[in-house]
């Protein structure tokens, strides 16, 4: 029996078969699939998360953790853990991404910076991995494996291999020297929703213990939306003051905080660019290819500000970006 029929059977005890409509919701980068269940006056979300492909325990257990600390998440109303079907509350259709043209955009970001600082203070919990050296090295390897080797088919020269090792060491050390906090990992415009007068958080199951600037990078240097530089600078200063007020950082000058932020961004965007390519090559999802070049250009732009990243910037601008543009010209027609 295919999973769609199994999903319908999961719903049958909760809804009369002729009294609900099921509509697919697109856009998720994982193996999970989502559908909206409409039943006249009410709507729900049903998640198909095949346990043969995904471990659903963190989704279930971390839902309890974050909800207990007052965050608005989808409520798990019914679950068949063996099959991987979950009936969830419907948080609506409005994501932060839909509000970024508003006059209130800066205000939205300020509220979300406060929210991210509160999220960071949640105590470590079971199922939260730790962003250690090995984990960070693995994330960086995604860029080399999926973008450099597989997507553009480039073989690194010996001096480029040495440069890559130096850059990885720099970025890993930058992450490890920051205060360790609870990190959502994908705190960006497509995973933050506006429901009623509240901000709700989705896709929280990969939360970890990691660097204090990580979620701030996800928010302010979003792979799907680029803030104007002046607005970014204002919000980064606002975040610095907020993180001090909420005691996430102590005795750290703004210049050091900005370096943490920038280098964390380079690490995250290298990983993200690799993941976008992996989604195409491994999973057959081409919808994220449009985000590859803006993400690479983030890396190049930030690298200009740091002499120790000059060789990375040069490699990006002379080899990686041109070859990526060439490959994308073929893929995106």
Shape: globular
Derived from helix and strand composition plus strand pairing, the structural class reads alpha+beta
Q: What composes the largest sheet?
A: 5 strands, antiparallel
Please mark out the parts with pLDDT under 50 across 5 or more consecutive residues, or reply none. Answer: none
- Average pLDDT confidence is 94
Oligomer: single chain
Compute the separation of the termini in Å: 36 Å
Q: Beta fraction of the residues?
A: 5-15%
Extended strand count: 10
Number of helical elements: 10
Strand order of the largest sheet: 1-2-3-5-4
Structure description:
The chain is of the alpha+beta class and 333 residues long. Helix content is 48%, strand content 14%. It is globular. The chain starts with a helix and ends with a helix. The mean pLDDT is 94.
Secondary structure layout plus pairing:
Elements: H1 3-11, E1 21-25, E2 33-39, E3 42-48, H2 57-68, E4 76-80, E5 85-89, H3 105-120, E6 129-130, H4 133-151, H5 158-176, E7 180-183, E8 192-195, E9 198-201, E10 208-211, H6 214-220, H7 229-245, H8 254-281, H9 292-303, H10 310-331
Parallel strand pairs: 6-10
Antiparallel strand pairs: 1-2, 2-3, 3-5, 4-5, 7-10, 8-9
């Amino acid at each position: 029996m295919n999973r769609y029929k199994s999903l319908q059977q999961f719903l049958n005890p909760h809804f009369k078969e002729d009294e609900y409509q099921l509509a697919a919701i697109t856009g998720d980068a994982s193996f999970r699939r989502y559908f909206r269940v409409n039943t006249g006056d009410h709507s729900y979300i049903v998640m198909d998360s095949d346990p043969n492909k995904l471990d659903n325990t963190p989704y279930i257990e971390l839902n309890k953790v974050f909800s207990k600390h007052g965050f608005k998440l989808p409520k798990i109303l019914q679950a068949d853990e063996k099959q991987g079907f979950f009936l969830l509350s419907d948080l609506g259709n409005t994501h932060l991404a839909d509000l970024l043209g508003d006059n209130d955009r800066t205000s939205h970001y300020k509220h979300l910076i406060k929210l991210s600082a509160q999220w960071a203070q949640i105590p470590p919990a079971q199922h939260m991995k730790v962003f250690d050296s090995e984990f960070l090295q693995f994330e960086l390897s995604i860029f080399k494996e999926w973008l450099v080797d597989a997507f553009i088919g480039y073989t690194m020269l010996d001096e480029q291999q040495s440069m890559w090792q130096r850059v990885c060491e720099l970025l890993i050390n930058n992450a490890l020297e920051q205060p360790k906090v609870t990190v959502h990992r994908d705190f960006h415009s497509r995973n933050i929703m506006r429901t009623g007068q509240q901000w709700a958080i989705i896709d929280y199951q990969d939360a970890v213990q990691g660097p204090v600037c990580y979620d701030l990078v996800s928010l302010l240097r979003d792979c799907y939306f680029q803030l104007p530089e002046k607005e970014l600078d204002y919000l980064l200063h606002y975040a610095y003051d907020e993180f001090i007020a909420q005691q996430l950082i102590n005795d750290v000058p703004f210049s050091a905080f900005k370096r943490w932020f920038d280098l964390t961004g380079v690490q995250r965007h290298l990983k993200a660019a690799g993941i976008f390519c992996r989604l195409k090559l491994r999973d057959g999802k081409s919808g994220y290819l449009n985000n590859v070049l803006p993400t690479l250009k983030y890396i190049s732009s930030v690298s200009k500000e740091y002499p120790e990243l000059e060789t990375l910037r040069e490699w990006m601008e002379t080899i990686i970006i041109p070859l990526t543009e060439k490959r994308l010209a073929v893929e995106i027609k």
